[in-house]
TrEMBL record:
<dbReference type="InterPro" id="IPR017850">
    <property type="entry name" value="Alkaline_phosphatase_core_sf"/>
</dbReference>
<dbReference type="InterPro" id="IPR000917">
    <property type="entry name" value="Sulfatase_N"/>
</dbReference>
<keyword id="KW-0732">Signal</keyword>
<dbReference type="InterPro" id="IPR035874">
    <property type="entry name" value="IDS"/>
</dbReference>
<feature type="domain" description="Sulfatase N-terminal">
    <location>
        <begin position="34"/>
        <end position="397"/>
    </location>
</feature>
<keyword id="KW-0479">Metal-binding</keyword>
<dbReference type="GO" id="GO:0047753">
    <property type="term" value="F:choline-sulfatase activity"/>
</dbReference>
<dbReference type="Pfam" id="PF00884">
    <property type="entry name" value="Sulfatase"/>
</dbReference>
<keyword id="KW-0106">Calcium</keyword>
<protein>
    <submittedName>
        <fullName>Choline-sulfatase</fullName>
        <ecNumber>3.1.6.6</ecNumber>
    </submittedName>
</protein>
<comment type="similarity">
    <text>Belongs to the sulfatase family.</text>
</comment>
<keyword id="KW-0378">Hydrolase</keyword>
Length: 492
C-alpha cells in the first residue's frame, strides 16, 4: 500500500509541476475551492483527551478529532520550533534542506528564503496566495511570533519571515506592543523579554481570556473569518497559538480546573543513559516557586505538569471559540481544518523539561485533520506520518491551480488515509536533530548520529514497550538495527 501511494504522489506532482505551474493568481479566484484553517499549537505533545488521557481537559480538540481524522503516529521532522515549521511550510525534509536544528532557517544561512519571488512557490501559503487564495497570518506560524523578523529584544528590520506568502500579517499585540512580547507574555503587558527581569515559570492570575495574547489571537481570527464570509475568494488562514509553550501562563480558571484532578505522576523521572539527553536549559533558566533541583522533587513535578495542562486547557478553549464561529458563519462545510503541534515536549519524562532531543516524546506531536466530504469522521489512524506530508495533502485536497514549488516536496499525500482507502503510507518515519537521524517504525525507534555517512551512538528502543529511553536494545538486537539502518541517509 505504501508503494502504491508513492507512485500516486509521483504522478500527482509530476503533473502539477509540469502542467499548471504557469497559471496566474488572477485566473484562479474560485470560491468553490475549499478554505484552509491551519492551527499551529506550540509545544503541544499528544497530551489530549482524544489521545486517551482522561485527566486532560480538551473538549474542543477532542470534538474536532471526532469529526475528522486523528493521527496517533505523527512525527515532526525536527524537535525544535523554527526547523520544524520550516519543514511544514516548505514541504522539505531536513535530508534535502539541511535544516536540522536552527530556528532562523527561514531568513538566515544557506536555507534562507529568497526575498525575490521565484518561479515556484517557496512556501505553502505562498502557493495558495498565488492560486488566488486570501492568506492571513495570525500568531506563530513560522518561527517568529507574528511573521516579522525581529530578535527577542525587539531589534531587527521587521521584514516578512515568509516572503510573498501573506496578504496580511494580522497578529494583535495588545499591551505587549510587539511579537516576541506577546509570545513570552505575562499579565498586564509584561514580558520575559521586556527588560523588567520577570522570568517566572508560571503565572495564573488573570480572569479573562483576552487579558492574555492567545485570547486576542482567537478574537482576531474570528473577526477575520467574518471578513472572509463577505468576500468572494477562498482563504488560507494560519492561526498560531503560543501556549502551552513556556512560560506557563493562563487564566486562573484553567489552573483552578485541575485542583481536584489526579494527574498521573511522571512514569520515568530518572535521567536515562541516552547520549541525547540534555539539561533542559531554557526551563531551568526560569524562576521557580519551589526548589530548583535536578531532577525536580515529586511535588514540583506535579505542579509543573498541572501548569502545562492548564495552558493546554486555555488553548483548547480558544480553538473552540474559533471553530464555533466557523460553524455559526456557515463556513464549516467548505473549510479544511488542520491542528498541528510543532513538536512534542518532555513533561519530566526522563528528567527532561523540553524538546531538543531525537527521542519519542519530543518527536511525536498532535495532528488532526477535518476535511468535509473527504475525511472519515472519527477515524484514528496509526499510520506513520510526518509533518512534511501536510503540504502535499493540502494540494491534493484543494487542487490549487498554481502548484509549482521552488523545490520538490518530500512528503506524501494523506488523502488515502483520510478517506480510509489506505491504512499506511510508509514503513518508517524519519526525524533529524543536528547530526542525528531517528528512524521510527511501528515497533521501534532507532536514533543514530551520522559521521561521514556512517551511524554512531546507535540507540534502539521498543516503543510498544515504552515511549521513554529505558533500555537500549541496539546490542541485543543487531538484526533490527541492520534493518532500520537501511532507512538512514547515506553520505552525500
Amino acid at each position: 500500500m505504501w508503494f502504491r501511494n508513492i507512485i500516486y504522489n509521483l504522478l500527482f506532482f509530476w503533473g502539477s509541476l509540469v502542467g499548471v505551474g504557469a497559471v496566474s493568481a488572477a485566473e484562479t479566484s474560485d470560491n468553490s475551492q475549499p478554505n484552509v484553517l491551519l492551527i499551529a499549537i506550540d509545544d503541544l505533545r499528544t497530551e489530549l483527551g482524544c489521545y486517551g488521557l482522561p485527566y486532560v481537559q480538551s473538549p474542543s480538540l477532542d470534538q474536532l478529532a471526532s469529526e475528522g481524522v486523528l493521527f496517533t503516529n505523527h512525527f515532526v521532522q525536527v524537535p525544535t520550533c523554527g526547523a520544524s515549521r520550516y519543514a511544514l511550510l516548505t514541504g522539505r525534509s531536513p535530508r534535502n534542506s539541511g535544516v536540522t536544528r536552527k530556528n532562523q532557517a527561514f531568513y538566515q544561512g544557506d536555507s534562507a528564503l529568497s526575498v525575490n519571488q521565484t518561479a515556484g512557490a517557496q512556501t505553502m501559503p505562498e502557493l495558495f496566495r498565488r492560486s488566488g487564495y486570501q492568506t492571513t497570518c495570525i500568531g506563530k506560524i513560522s518561527h517568529t511570533a507574528d511573521g516579522r523578523v525581529f530578535e527577542y529584544n525587539g531589534t531587527g528590520d521587521g521584514r516578512d519571515e515568509l516572503p510573498h506568502a501573506w496578504d496580511e500579517l494580522a497578529t494583535p499585540f495588545g499591551s505587549w506592543k510587539r511579537g516576541w512580547g506577546i509570545f513570552f507574555a505575562y499579565a498586564n503587558g509584561r514580558s520575559r523579554e521586556d527588560g523588567s527581569g520577570i522570568r517566572d515559570l508560571m503565572e495564573f492570575k488573570v480572569e479573562q481570556d483576552e487579558e492574555l495574547p492567545d485570547g486576542l489571537l482567537a478574537r482576531q481570527a474570528i473577526e477575520k473569518l467574518r471578513e472572509y464570509k463577505e468576500g468572494g475568494k477562498p482563504f488560507f488562514l494560519g492561526l498560531g497559538f503560543f501556549k502551552p509553550h513556556l512560560p506557563f501562563v493562563a487564566p486562573k480558571q484553567d489552573w483552578d480546573a485541575f485542583e481536584n484532578v489526579e494527574i498521573p505522576p511522571v512514569p520515568h523521572p530518572e535521567k536515562p543513559e541516552s547520549a541525547y539527553w540534555h539539561k533542559s536549559g531554557e526551563f531551568y533558566n526560569y524562576d521557580m516557586e519551589f526548589e530548583k533541583t535536578r531532577p525536580l522533587s515529586r511535588e514540583a513535578r506535579e505542579n509543573v505538569r498541572r501548569g502545562y495542562l492548564a495552558c493546554v486547557r486555555y488553548t483548547d478553549r480558544q480553538v473552540g471559540k474559533v471553530l464555533t464561529a466557523l460553524d455559526e458563519l456557515g463556513m464549516r462545510e467548505n473549510t479544511i481544518v488542520i491542528v498541528w503541534g510543532d513538536h512534542g515536549w518532555f513533561l519530566g519524562d526522563s528528567a527532561l523539561w523540553a524538546k531538543h532531543a531525537p527521542l519519542e516524546r519530543a518527536l511525536k506531536s498532535t495532528l488532526m485533520i477535518r476535511a468535509p466530504g473527504v475525511a472519515e469522521a472519527g477515524l484514528k489512524s496509526a499510520a506513520l506520518v510526518e509533518t512534511v506530508d501536510i503540504y502535499p495533502t493540502l494540494i491534493d485536497l484543494c487542487q490549487p491551480a498554481f502548484r509549482k514549488t521552488e523545490y520538490p516536496l518530500d512528503g506524501m499525500s494523506l488523502k488515502p488515509i483520510l478517506t480510509g482507502e489506505e491504512t499506511e503510507i510508509r514503513e518508517a518515519a524519519l526525524s533529524y536533530w543536528n547530526d542525528a537521524v531517528s528512524v521510527r517504525t511501528q515497533q521501534y525507534r532507532m536514533t543514530a548520529s551520522m559521521k561521514r555517512g556512517k551511524p554512531t551512538k546507535i540507540e534502539l528502543y521498543d516503543i510498544t514497550e515504552n515511549p521513554d529511553p529505558i533500555e537500549n536494545l541496539a546490542k541485543s538486537k543487531p538484526k533490527v538495527v541492520e534493518k532500520l539502518s537501511k532507512f538512514l541517509p547515506g553520505e552525500k
